[in-house]
Design goal:
The complex is a heterodimer of chains A (573) and B (684). With 573 residues, chain A is mostly beta strands. Chain A has a domain of 181 residues: YVTN repeat-like/Quinoprotein amine dehydrogenase (Methylamine Dehydrogenase, Chain H, 7 Propeller), CATH 2.130.10.10. Chain A contains 5 helices and 46 strands. Chain A is globular and about 75 Å long. With 684 residues, chain B is of the alpha+beta class. Among the domains of chain B are: 112 residues, no CATH class; 151 residues, 7 Propeller (Methylamine Dehydrogenase, Chain H), CATH 2.130.10; 99 residues, no CATH class; 95 residues, no CATH class. Chain B contains 18 helices and 29 strands. In chain B, the strands form 9 sheets. Chain B has a 5-stranded antiparallel beta sheet, with no helix packed on it. A 4-stranded antiparallel beta sheet of chain B has the order 1-25-24-23, with no helix packed on it. Chain B has a 4-stranded antiparallel beta sheet with strand order 2-3-4-5, with no helix packed on it. In chain B, strand 24 and strand 25 form a beta hairpin. In chain B, helix 3 packs across helix 6, helix 7 packs parallel to helix 9 and helix 16 packs parallel to helix 18. Classes of the chains: A mainly beta (573), B alpha+beta (684). The interface between A and B is medium-sized, with 24 and 11 residues. Chain A: GO terms for molecular function: RNA binding. Chain A: This is UTP4 protein. Chain A: InterPro entries: Quinoprotein_ADH-like_sf, UTP4, WD40/YVTN_repeat-like_dom_sf, WD40_rpt. Chain A: It holds the Pfam family WD40.
């Protein structure tokens, strides 16, 4: 419940964490030199702080500096200053530092002596994390490499233990800014926009999802929203939004053909967010007339008007006061209301007024009173229902006609990654992080027969082994049995009218089917029609019955915007 | 065929600024490195050029008042340049030297005619009096006395080359008037100079022979200079004059074998008449520039011209006689040519080597035809001796025709005297001369009669024009002769040595030879039982169904040129057992070829997979019905079928993979560029 903050001016401030915020308590002993990192001793009696050329240990109760260690004491004729980038305070009293000289050092804080020093890199060691048992440390360097240190006996059976650098990994091209040590994996995040989970194989009992190296480039959430009726796309960037009108063609062709465009895509609006805050969520209404977005502290609503080729955008004034931040925004399909998922588990319903106004209509509270933030919303096409998923993974369905809680979908042991309500049947389709799919009838408050069949038969092994979650679900209004799902690497038209594939069948069978004659195809068809042509797939949605929109985000585009990595000499170059 | 390719200007020769300042060029010599030439003008300057860059790399001049009197050459061993100015003053310098006045200088005791530089022999200095010294010897004592060999004659031309490690220098002198190799009667002659050094100091009179008549359909080329391009081609620079028309200067390439003009290039701006040739480039003056023109000269043969040249890999099948001029009137033609030789030999040249090599008068006036007529009734030994001499000394234009006559004479004698068969002599002639079937049609017939398989093998390898009937006859003889008999004869095994294990075979055959005597017919009947014994296992379990000698002979058949339409009727006559044996061998070769990724057998003149396949198809076409009914052929055909089917499947799979890879590549390419596109996507 105490928060310590190290400041550029060399002070360390202690805050009390109170409901809804933090409260300043006191300053610790202030000395010269920036504070770059802090670490609590597990007993919370002391704090270690890394600074320039030195580390300091504070006594929390007195606020006094009880030890000051010059990290360069042992180095002769140092020209540059040494920055202690990261620090960890072990329960044994050992302070671990990583610094800009590429060293990982172990100190006895009471005596002020260096216990061990390991130079792991010629460039800075930026981040450091200790396992819960304090027998393993992971460090990240500015060359993109991560190293594991383990506390191992000097000899087999010996009681004397030492820190040994055991495993080097190179999963990043740029600075590894953050590392974490879970009980079974090393987790690192780099400036190269990658989050890497590297499992420690010696902790793995069997092969499985956890035993595989994972790399994440994109957040597991939708950054694009689509105004299907107006054929617009809204792209969410960290500091601004872009509204584009899709291009069109008046020709048709055969499979694989690229059609000539009769209208080019058009960049309509760029909406810059004021201030340093990142945009957390955004949405455009189906008709394209409303755009809403939220940052950590602000919520904005705009009315967009289209007159011929010109676009005018007007901020809606006097928004109702809501508890922020909003985690998810969703317009109703008739664009008459906006649902705002709040941090406290509630869903606000705002009524949108022409020509550009808004008023608070209702706030749904989960019956359990869960304080977990709502992070996913789905509304029905008929304006009857809205479904909300909170951080406790509970799915609540609310009735919009009588503003009442309708039901809760039975709890499942995994996080919900996407959900949507079918426009015709009002079935809620839910995708979970373990790749399971459920279909829940909202009117009947129960899983559908198809969903039960899926659970009985089980999904195809290849489907369950995919490692990126379904981030968006859409439906084909003209064919109720079609469900469109997509993740980063594929999109899938799930045809409920077709049999489910068993494990002996080929899941990704589209290219095989295309080679088969018509008659032979029928026997091979199954429910999952998967296309992997577009990668990495940021967004896919159905515009109308025969028009899909796909948004790819090439990794190369991201990489070209990265700063240059630190040049390392490789053999022969 | 010869062809002139693109041309470019190396440098200007104009009076203002060009090389030589309008005085013209003295000579062009190869430079120290490839693509470099050394130009000497008729004045004071030598310039080094990089030909491909058309760029001068360096230039050296002697002082005013001095004059370079012979072409500057490069010593290829030391990369030094050697010049002689004012007849007697020798200068040697290197690339880095700038001022010729400061470089090495030696004044000699006699006037220098020319310095010749040999690529691997060091420079040789030829004095105007005919004396010759190597540069090294000369530099030891520059003032040494140089003997005068020619008194009242003037050296007109000299040339140096290396013959078997030995440098040779030839020069031509002129006593009163003109005698040069391009004569005023518009012809080029060939003079053969024996290089063996006779100890006796005698004069030798060399005969010259007409090499080329420079006339094309009425126009006559007045040659001013020529270079020998290769053994069949010469290039002549001269003016072509048709009667009643203005003469045109041009560069021409002639084929001396077929006496034809191969290509020409008109030079409307005129030329100084000088022509040099280095590294497949001609250099000549054209107007006021030095022009470089590249050329290509491929050895031509009639066989190549009419299509079926045997094996393009073997370069020695290149030269064939022009048998259009021979035919039935063979003898008549040779008589005529002999007459012309006799006529030409009137103009003789006296040539002297440094040691005044001796001349042995050889009045070769007796015509071949006459000689042959005279010898008709001579005893065998006299006959053979005379012919041997004729063949070894004959150096005349229609030599091939003469050889044809000789062989005809030999064969006629064989026919009249069944016991006479000069095996080694015939072999020698066929092996050393470029003959054709049409030149001596009876030769192979007699060899077939005598079962001289070695001669037949050589003929099959060398003759480009064997009729299919004879090829078939050879095949039949080869297949019928027993392995044991073949063991005792010398056959060229180079085509099989690389893929059949000879050692193993020898061991096995030794046990065979124990059989006392043999009967070809009997042997043949027993063949089927023996095949299993004699065969050798290849790596994958296939047997070579014939011994190496027989394989080599069959390979010669496989190598010969043929036309299916003409061969097929003959092939149908092949006895079934022999056809099976041959097919078995072809199948063996096919398997052997397919073992390697490049489907080629190792060795010289080994059959190619195409030849094997063609013969296999041909043989099956000819004998299919018989083969199907023959029990011993059944397994072979089935194996063959399996093997071919496996290959077809394999290649079809490879094709599929190729197509898939192409498709992948196409998809990859397609995907790259667009940032926005509307595509058609079908989900089934």
């Amino acid at each position: 419940t105490l928060l310590q903050i190290g400041c550029e001016d060399g002070s360390v401030k202690l805050f009390q964490v109170v409901p809804g915020g933090i409260q300043f308590e006191r300053n610790l002993d202030r000395r010269k030199g920036r504070i770059l990192c802090l670490s609590w001793h597990p007993s919370e009696t002391h704090i270690a702080a890394g600074s320039i050329d030195a580390l300091r240990v504070f006594d929390v109760s007195s606020g006094q500096t009880v030890q000051r260690i010059m990290v360069n004491y042992h180095v002769q004729k140092v020209q540059r200053e040494c920055i202690v980038w990261s620090i960890a305070f072990l329960s044994s009293g050992t302070v671990v530092t990583s610094d800009s000289f590429g060293r990982v050092q172990f100190w006895d804080w009471e005596r002020g002596t260096l216990l061990e020093s390991h130079t792991v890199s010629t460039s800075a060691v930026l981040s450091l994390a200790v396992s819960e048992k304090e027998d393993s440390i992971v460090v990240g360097t500015s060359t993109g490499a991560t190293y594991q240190f383990q506390l191992l006996p000097v000899k087999m059976g010996s009681l004397e233990k030492r820190w040994v650098r055991t495993k080097p990994f190179q999963h990043h091209t740029h600075d590894v800014r953050a590392v974490a040590h879970s009980s079974t994996a090393l987790i690192s995040g780099g400036l190269d926009a990658q989050l890497v989970i590297r499992p420690l194989m010696e902790k793995m009992q069997k092969k499985g999802y956890d035993a595989v190296l994972r790399k994440f480039t994109f957040p597991h959430r939708c950054l694009v929203s689509c105004a299907r009726k107006a054929r617009l796309l809204l792209f969410q960037f960290s500091q601004y939004l872009e509204l584009w009108r899709l291009g069109s063609t008046d020709e048709t062709g055969k499979d694989g053909e690229v059609l000539p465009l009769c209208r080019m895509p058009e960049h309509l609006v760029q909406l810059k967010s004021k201030g340093p805050e990142h945009i957390y969520c955004s949405c455009v209404s189906l008709c394209g007339s409303w755009i809403a977005y939220s940052t950590a502290s602000r919520f904005h609503l705009y009315r967009v008007q289209y007159e011929g080729d010109s676009v005018s955008i007007k901020k809606v004034p006097k928004l109702p006061k809501l508890l922020l931040p909003a985690y998810q925004l969703q317009f109703s399909s008739d664009s008459s209301s906006l649902f705002v998922a709040s941090a406290r588990g509630s869903v606000h319903v705002l009524q949108l007024l022409e020509p550009g106004g808004c008023k608070h209509l209702h706030t749904f509270q989960p019956p359990s009173g869960s304080p977990e933030a709502v992070y996913l919303l789905a509304s029905s096409a008929d304006g009857h229902w809205v479904a909300a998923v909170g951080g406790d993974w509970a799915i609540h369905v609310y009735n919009l006609k009588c503003f009442k809680h309708h039901c809760t979908v039975p709890m499942y042991s995994c996080a919900v990654t996407a959900l949507a309500i079918h426009p015709v049947t009002n079935n809620l389709v839910i995708a979970y992080s373990d790749q399971q799919l459920f279909e829940f009838s909202i009117p009947k408050k129960q899983y559908t027969a198809w969903s039960r069949t899926v659970q009985n038969c089980g999904l195809h092994k290849a489907w369950l082994e995919r490692d990126s979650p379904i981030t968006h679900i859409a439906f084909n209004p003209k064919n109720p049995s079609h469900i469109l799902l997509h993740d980063i690497y594929m999109f899938c038209v799930l045809d409920k009218s077709l049999p489910l594939p068993d494990n002996s069948a080929l899941l990704m069978n589209q290219s095989t089917l295309k080679q088969l004659p018509e008659t032979a195809r029928q026997r091979q068809l199954h429910a999952f029609k998967i296309c992997k042509k577009f990668q990495p797939l940021l967004f896919a949605d159905l515009l109308d019955e025969n028009c899909l929109v796909m948004v790819e985000r090439p990794i190369m585009d991201i990489k070209t915007q990265l700063p240059l990595p630190i040049q390392r000499k490789k053999f022969g170059t | 065929m010869a062809a002139l390719c693109e041309s470019f200007t190396l440098c200007g020769l104009g009076p203002s600024g060009g090389v030589g300042l309008g005085g013209g060029l003295l000579a062009l010599e190869p430079g120290p490195d490839p693509d470099h030439v050394l130009l000497t003008d008729r004045g004071r300057t030598a310039t080094l050029f990089k030909v491909s860059d058309q760029k001068p790399l360096g230039g050296w001049s002697v002082k005013h008042g001095q004059i370079i009197t012979c072409p500057v050459v490069c010593n290829f061993e030391t990369h030094e340049y050697i010049a002689v100015h004012d007849d007697k003053v020798l200068r040697i310098w290197k690339n880095k030297d700038i001022n010729l006045d400061k470089v090495f200088k030696a004044t000699l005791s006699a006037d220098v005619y020319r310095v010749h530089s040999l690529p691997n022999g060091g420079p040789v200095v030829l004095f105007k009096g005919g004396g010759v010294r190597t540069l090294d010897v000369l530099l030891e004592a520059p003032q040494q006395e140089i003997e005068n060999i020619i008194s009242d004659e003037v050296i007109k031309w000299s040339e140096a080359f290396t013959e078997g490690q030995q440098p040779v220098l030839i020069f031509a002198t002129e006593k009163h008037h003109h005698i040069s190799l391009t004569d005023s009667n518009d012809s080029v002659y060939k003079v053969l100079i024996p290089l063996q050094q006779n100890t006796e100091e005698e004069e030798q009179i060399l005969s010259k022979s007409l090499l080329l008549n420079l006339s094309v359909s009425g126009s006559v080329l007045k040659g001013t200079s020529f270079v020998v391009v290769d053994k069949d081609h010469i290039a002549v620079l001269g003016s072509l004059a048709a009667s009643g028309e203005e003469s045109k200067e041009c560069l021409t390439i002639w084929n001396t074998k077929f006496q034809t003009l191969q290509t020409s290039k008109e030079l409307p701006l005129g030329t100084s008449g000088q022509l040099w040739c280095y590294e497949e480039k001609f250099f000549f003056t054209h107007g006021k520039v030095l022009t470089v023109i590249m050329y290509k000269c491929e050895t031509s043969s009639l066989a190549a011209a009419v299509g079926k040249l045997k094996d393009s890999q073997t370069p020695d099948v290149s030269s064939f006689v022009n048998w259009n001029t021979l035919g039935d009137e063979e003898l008549v033609v040779s008589f005529q040519s002999q007459q012309s030789v006799a006529l030409k030999s009137e103009s003789k040249m006296t040539l002297r080597s440094k040691r005044n090599t001796v001349a042995e008068v050889q009045p070769d006036t007796l015509s071949v035809g006459q000689l042959l007529l005279n010898l008709k009734d001579a005893s065998t030994s006299v006959f053979e001796d005379e012919l041997r001499q004729l063949v070894s000394t004959a150096q005349m234009p229609d030599f091939q025709a003469t050889i044809g006559c000789v062989i005809t004479a030999l064969i006629n004698r064989c026919k009249t005297n069944p016991k006479y068969y000069p095996r080694n002599f015939l072999l020698h002639i066929v092996q050393t001369r470029d003959l054709s079937y049409s030149l001596c049609p009876d030769l192979m017939a007699v060899a077939l009669e005598k079962k001289d398989v070695h001669l037949l093998q050589i003929c099959l390898q060398q003759f480009p024009d064997i009729p299919e009937e004879i090829t078939y006859a050879c095949l039949k003889v080869f297949l019928s002769i027993s392995e044991a008999y073949l063991q005792r004869i010398d056959v060229n095994l180079e085509s099989v040595i690389c893929y059949i294990d000879i050692e193993l075979n020898n061991k096995e055959v030794k046990t065979e030879i124990v059989e006392n005597g043999f009967n070809a017919e009997l042997e043949q009947d027993m063949r089927d039982t023996k095949i299993t014994k004699e065969t050798h296992r290849t790596a994958d379990g296939e047997f070579c169904p014939v011994g190496p000698q027989k394989a080599a002979l069959l390979n010669a058949v496989l190598h010969s040129a043929y036309s299916e339409t003409f061969l097929l009727p003959h092939l149908k006559n092949l006895p079934a057992q022999q056809a099976v044996l041959f097919l078995r061998y072809l199948y063996y070769l096919h398997v052997k070829c397919s073992e390697k990724i490049n489907t080629t057998l190792p060795g010289i003149r080994s059959p190619t997979i195409n030849q094997v396949m063609d013969w296999m198809c041909l043989l099956l076409d000819a004998h299919f019905t018989v083969m199907v009914m023959l029990p011993e052929a059944k397994e072979l055909l089935s194996n063959l079928h399996k093997f071919v089917r496996a290959q077809v499947r394999f290649y079809s799979e490879l094709n599929k993979i190729e197509a898939s890879l192409q498709e992948l590549q196409r998809l990859h390419h397609q995907k790259d560029p667009q940032t926005y596109s509307i595509e058609v996507l079908e989900l089934i």
